Each structure stands twice: as structure tokens, then as C-alpha cells.
Amino acid sequence: MSNRTPEQERNEQVVRQLYYFAEASSKDTAKFMSLFAEGGSFYDISAGKKYYGADIGRTVDIYASAFPDMHRELGNFYFYDNAVIVELSLNGTHNGELALPIGTIPPTGKNIHAPCCDVFRLTDGKVTSFDCYLVASVLLEQLGVLGNLGAVLKH
After folding, report:
1. Where is the SnoaL-like domain (predicted)?
2. Which pLDDT tens digits describe the chain residue by residue (155 residues)?
3. Helix (H/G/I), strand (E/B), else coil: 152
4. What's the DSSP call for residue 98?
């Protein structure tokens, strides 16, 4: 028996839908964006970039393009008031260009299994903020570019 409130149950389902629409195999950027409230935001903490409006969908497109087999392995879900916190990993093969705010990493053909923690805040079943705490150093190390990032980036 769950000790979560009906709102927390609904919020979990919204977050699970959001992940589903961000997967490479089921990518639907428009449906992903439809789960955000007007004025909602996505904050890529590791990249230091916050996205609003139509730009939120760019994040789905960027990762699906860079990792055509991108999938997320969802771990634990935690709930606090209107927040949903998810432990997960980003998994895939780097077969496309990874466009980051600091530059673009050409395809390496390497696999990633990068740990991440996402924090969602929801109101009335819509995401008002999504803060992504991807462990970028692990991702870059798995791509084989951590020690040589400056030489690898295309500007």
C-alpha cells in the first residue's frame, strides 16, 4: 500500500511520461513539452544552462541526436510536497554530435552509463521546473574526452 497522496501519484505518472517522450525509441518532443506548465523551465545544472519555452524541447532533440539509442534507467523516486526527485542513469551510444553550450563533441562511438538526479516541481499536473543534476565528469570520462576536452570541442 502506498503512503503517497493522490497528487504525488499523479506527479509520478507525469514524470514517467516525460521520461518516456524523451527516450530515443519513443521520442516525441511536442508531447514532452506539453507536460510543462506555461513559464516552466529545464535547468541543465552541469552545463550551467536554463531553458524556457520551445528551447526546453531542444534538450530532448540534442541528446536523442547524440545518442540515438538513449534510454534512462530509472531508480528510486522520492516525494516532498510538490517535488519529485528521481535517481537514474543516462545510457546510450555516442553516435552523433553532442551540442553543449560550451561547444560540440563529435561522435566517439562510446557507451555511456552516466548517473543523474532529477528534481521536478509540479503544479496541477504540469512541470513548473525540471533541474537535471547529471554527473558531467562521469559522462565526459566515459566519452573519453575529459582530459582533452578543449581539443575535442568544435566551436
Report:
1. 20-129
2. 468 899 999 999 999 999 999 998 999 999 999 999 999 999 999 989 999 998 999 989 999 999 999 999 999 999 999 999 999 999 999 999 999 888 899 999 999 999 999 999 999 999 999 999 999 999 999 999 877 656 666 65
3. helix
4. E
**How many separate domains does the chain show?**
1
Domain assignment present for residue 1? The answer is no
Spatial distance between the Cα atoms of 152 and 114, rounded to a whole number of angstroms: 19
The domain spanning residue 56 has which CATH number? 3.10.450.50
Position 27 in a domain: yes
In a domain, 80, yes or no: yes
Give start and end residues of each alpha helix (H) in 35-135.
55-66
Range of the domain at 65: 6-152
- Give pTM, 2 decimals: 0.91
CA distance linking residue 118 with residue 76, whole number of Å: 11
**How many Cβ atoms are within 10 Å of 112's Cβ, its own excluded?**
21
